[in-house]
Amino acid sequence: MELEKHEMRLFSSIDIPEIFISDYMQLLDSDSIKVYLYLLFAQKNNIDFTILDLSKRLGSTVEVIKSSFEKLDKLELVLKKPNGYIIKDIREIELNNLYSPKLTSSLEDAVKNAENNKDRLKAITTINNTYFHGTMSPSWFTDIDMMFEKYGFENEVVIALINDCYGKGTLNHKYAMAVANTWNQNRIKSFDDLERYFMNYETKTKLKKQIAKKLGLNRNLTEYEEAYVDKWSNDYKYSLDIIELALKKTTSKTNPSFTYIDKILSDWHEHSLKTIEQINNFSKDFNEKDKFIKQFTKENKLNGYTKRQLNNLDQFCDNIKVGGE
Question: Which of 189, 220, 248 is the last residue of a domain?
Answer without folding.
Answer: 189
